[in-house]
Task: structure prediction
Amino acid sequence: IGGLITQYAFSQSNFPIESDVSISDGPYITQNNDMLDVTWVCKGQYKASSVSIASLPYSFSDCGLTAQIDNLIPPLQKVTYVGEFKVAALSDLHGQYDLMLKLLKNNKIIDSKSNWNFGKNHLVINGDVFDRGDKVTEILWFLYTLEQQAIAAGGDLHLVLGNHEVMVLNNNLKYLHQKYLRTAELLDKPFVDLFSSHSILGAWLRSKNLLVQVNDSVFVHGGFHPALVDMKFNLLAINSIFKENLVEDELEAPRVGFAKYLHKSDGPIWYRGYFKRLRATAAEIDSLVAHFNVKRIVVGHTSHNKVESRYGGKVIGIDTSIKRGLSGEILFIDGSNIWRGGVNGETLSIEYKP
Ligand code: ZN
Result:
């Protein structure tokens, strides 16, 4: 318990907020029969309104906050997408909304007005939008809208779940920026209720997958432990079992067996074994990519200064420390061409390391 409290205190003191007047956040929108209840905080003040679902689409704009809801059913999430298109991927945004916009604009994925500019191509956000930073809600609504624009253009956006999404949905708020605890107080609700299954963003997050295969790459937040090869589960089964056990309080019984394994430290949202001590061997990585029938596994979660390739390109790490708010990179894959997009939109080559 001592360790937990120390860590909590550390994360709190790390992110001071000056006063309530500096807080604007939201909107948090919840379905209530045939109405949407809309609440938000504007310069420290609680605000609320409601709109009829019959009047959708609904555009929200107040106090520098925006949201756009066209319909209440989140887009269908498949596990595999195949086609002649480019894939761009970035990861571990951790509330760094402004840096994310800069990266996406400079790399021409969005235009100067932050609208989809990537045509029929696909963008993967490889988990960990939540925690640490103080513009998480802005990123969520931005991605929510960008996904609709991408689909309308014949492209797509895939947000896969990271450990921080799963932590927040399970009411583990250890890394939450202090601003959000104050938001929840001002809205007079436990923070976790702001992302309940009845909320627009909560339902949208629950619709998201653990992983996505796009052409010959599979994207997952932490990585796949080599032991998964012997367990004989394919990507579809791993995703389904993980998703069916996403929010422990919403289950009839606690997670057991393989579901419990998938949600623990060797599981796909927490694993670090491609980069850190007790690294997987080259033979184990060969078995993994053969088992899943892909050319490479693209992961976030373990931070680097740039996009890092390991095991001759069979593993690519794309957590480029955006969480620090200073810089970051985007991975691009176009058939057999793979490159890094720099923060100023420069094209950079990838260095292959064992
Ligand atoms: Zn992570």
Summary: The two ends are 39 Å apart (CA to CA). The pocket of zinc ion is lined by residues 128, 162-164, 221, 301 (CB under 6 Å). DSSP finds ten helices and 17 strands in the chain. Confidence is low (pLDDT under 50) at residues 1-14.
